[in-house]
Batch of 2 targets.
Target 1
Amino acid sequence: MAGQTAERDAAFIVEWLRASTEAVRAESDRLTELDSAIGDADHGTNMRRGFTAVMTTLDAEERATPGGVLLVAGRTLVSTVGGASGPLFGTLLRRSGKALGEAERVSDEDVRDALRAGVAAVGQLGGAALGDKTMLDALLPAVAELPDYAAAARAAEEGAKATIPLRAHKGRASYLGERSVGHEDPGAASAALLLGALFQVSR
Amino acid sequence: MTGPAEGGMVGVVLVSHSHEVATSVATLASGLAGKGRLAPVVPAGGTPDGGLGTSSELITEAAWRADQGAGVAILVDLGSAVLTVRALLAEGDVLPPGARLVDAPLLEGAVAAVLTASTGADLDAVETAAADAWDYRKV
């Protein structure tokens, strides 16, 4: 770890999740609208419920480590969302938290490595790959840019927009076949919100 | 794998997006299993408020209720049901030890799993029987 500054603490992760929650709340209607085009019109509501529960849990009890914060946040998402985004976003946070271990302070490179592990776990859980019109289309290009948070946020945003012409190969939208073309994937849109929030709190 | 624990049968958990589907498949599978000793069959369908969806809470509760120490075969319908069970298994300590996601069609797999579990077979045999349901061609 020579040459790296371990400057990110548990509060940084809490603030990231708080900014994510605010973004999800602000964009909840847009997410649900995207999901009504190719899914079952509950993505915004589900994400909002999940992240609100995460903040309630985090505000009730302080955690000492960045990894600890992510573990409890991930577990809360799995148990409160009720749709596929629960286990998927929950796994992203949980696996990232696991990768950060017990350290009280971590470097931006640690955050990068952890999020890459989290994204890999999401791919494994859902069996999706780049180009399947899923959250991975925002996450994979984003974590490739880390630890540059600005570039990562931009890549996530572009990755989400790039799902518009794609045909869905995973999840409920895949039943629509060609009719899934022409709509932004809601999971990718949410993933872009999370990366945008991370950039916001990193400055 | 070890055999079933003393007296315990493999439990079967049926996960669906719908409470009615999970409950009805459980009733059907139990009914077709015959009159002898029946393996525990616990449905976990829908969300706690009765809506369509997947509930990690209901699944976890069902798995512990189905657990007699011989393992639990979890059968699911689709989408978030699959992902939720896989995420719960990845947690390591949420579901009972010996809980396993079984890759099988929900209805046909449930009938095969409950029948086999009710004979006192172990978890591997229950899993194989349920997965064999993929091969029941109808045409």
Target 2
Amino acid sequence: MTSRDTERPLGAEVVYERPRALADVVTHYCPGCTHGIAHRLVAEVLDELDVAGRAIGVASVGCSVLAYKYFNVDMQQAAHGRAPAVATGIKRVHPEAVVFTYQGDGDLAAIGTAEIIHAAMRGENLTVIFINNAIFGMTGGQMAPTTLVAQKTTTTPRGRDPARAGYPIRVCEMVSVLDGAGYVARAALSSPSNIARAKKAVRKAFESQLGGYGLGLVELLSSCNVNWGMSPGDALRWIETDMIPVYPLGVFKDRSEAGAEAARMEVAG
Amino acid sequence: MSGKVLMKGNEALAEAAVRAGCRFFFGYPITPQNEIPEYMSGRLPEVGGQFIQAESELAAINMVYGAGGAGARAMTSSSSPGVSLKQEGISYMAAAEVPGVIVNMVRGGPGLGGIQPAQSDYFQATRGGGHGDYRTIVFGPATVQEMVDVVGKAFELADKYRTPVVILGDGMLGQMMEPVVLPEPIDPASLPPKAWATTGTGGRRPPVVINSLYLDAAECEAMNRRLQAKYREICAREQMAEIAFPDSEYFVAAYGTTARICRMAIQEARARGHRVGLLRPVTLWPFPAEAFETVIGRAKGFLTVEMSLGQMVEDVRLVVAGRAPVSFYGRTGGVVPSSDEILIEIEKMVEGGGSM
Amino acid sequence: MRLAVIMAGFGGQGVMSMGQLLAYAGMFEGKEVTWLPSYGPEMRGGTANCTVIVSDEPVASPVETKPDACIIMNRPSLDRFEGAVVPGGLLVINTSLCDKPASRGDLRVVALPATDLAAELGDVRVANMVALGAFLAVEPVVQAASVVDALKKALPAHRQNLIPLNERALALGAETARAQLTA
């Protein structure tokens, strides 16, 4: 921050800068990937809520495996799918800390299904950032549990056939029915307006933790243009044309005082 | 007899953990260790601790990873099939250098096996157990009192070396009652601070990261070399063993419950005039090679007895290295060897039947 | 001195607590003790047994395949354990729930209707104490008073009123056993 401050011309106003909670490093994400946007939203919220100093993040396994390098907060790297269990251990030791996990769809909705469901069941005061890009990115584009019907991946070369590979899993719908879930919402990183709504959802998911309402989960529909075989622009449009119809946006649960209805109107795309 | 209480092994172990400053326990029910989570669920809230009955062994060990990484003394317990599931987390803890204590009240295996006492998880415990080049410190206590004593030691060494520590008991040790003297409680607040733990930066220091990912092969190798240096130090400093009748000509090597039965057989053998002693490893890793060296010069033979079909005997053979015959006797699947059976094997050894 | 006793019966007959009280009593008297239960599905209402060893020396093995004595609270336990007792050992049999006499001639046998005697005292649940009293009359490995001390320690405050009943049960078992031995 100091270096940037000194570089600033006299009288110039800062209108956009790196959030303090985001480390000043170059990420490894592919050009066009929306992970960077999601990281930024989390960091902005940590700054705005002034909780970065007591934040402890849990990185998962998948493309975001290196998230521990990108947030300027204490981090633990977790085994594949186990981030909610690791976060539970941390939060029980430091109940005053703001603990979050950052997980992809393979991590959270396949190998870690038990961990996320049971963290929600217990009403752990955690924030879960769930990146749904309908594919395994890190390992090279295999089917994810969230892969759409007929979507081609390297393990569904003829398209996902429900008769053989089942149907897309809707995590928000599933988690929101659990009494221990405090805030559950789905947003999309597909357009500036949707990103603005996504940020509100991320903020609410942290506020749910701060208010002690239980597990706050935000599912962010994200693009993987490389493994989808699309241009970055087409990938963002595909979120809107193909993913949102299967994964409707909105607030599925909000136990905070603000109330579910008001928030639903605001966030729904 | 003041200060002595009669306690079940599992409960004594749990209380000893609380007294060692353990405030976080995560577990999943499995016979024959259920008294440990049951005890902890009632006891930990009394001392400001937390108990979670996790959704799985995987979740439980990863909660230990989280809590240990966050700086707390944390523990999980299970029995053989459940400990297989925990190996993932133990490997991560070893690599990320997160302390924690894992209790395995071993039962017959493989597979679902049975619920009777066994020692067939020796390889798993002493060779690391999960993926990668690592070891865990492993204790194999033989009495309820010793179990209590090694719990305190386990937490101490886990913190000192930043490494997971395994306590290998068995169903019998967990279920039996014996008089014990419990140690004075340690206040966890009095333990040295852990600068490496995740606590939140407070805006005052750079972030700490608990991590086991090294995408650069050279960095990953360097991490491994660092671990190996630590393991060498542990081997040099932390071996524990008991030698009964050290001036003997023949030795029975056994640990845990089996060592108790061997002691009975040895008493009978000595009554028959055989010069037989007991060499009982207390740490299974590091394997107490030094104790073997103290008797190897005069030893005419070793008999290793286990509740397995031959696991620790490999370590005995490595240490003895052909300098004396090493024979083996084992029962498995939950069958406990009788002292009569062992006595027969001792007499075979003394009569020269020991094989290399 | 080293004495190993196996106590066996149905779950619910107080077999485990009888063994624990004996172990406690031994500990109070400064002796070395172990208590080893059978465990597993059989705990849930099936047959249960435990092994107690009381010794002047540290107890090596808590397992005893040739016990010095057995307290048999039901018929299946007689079938299972009679053969294991060392020659000259002691068999205490609860004839209320075991209609078969001991078949071995090389054992000392005390046969008493422990459950019926307990019922006469007003509570069948002290049948275990009747049997333990009989056992201690023949093998005074600990004093009955130490068992009562153990009971005082083991029972919660609101159950301390049961101690006189248990004392009577121990005494009744002992009297019955002595009468048989002198008969």
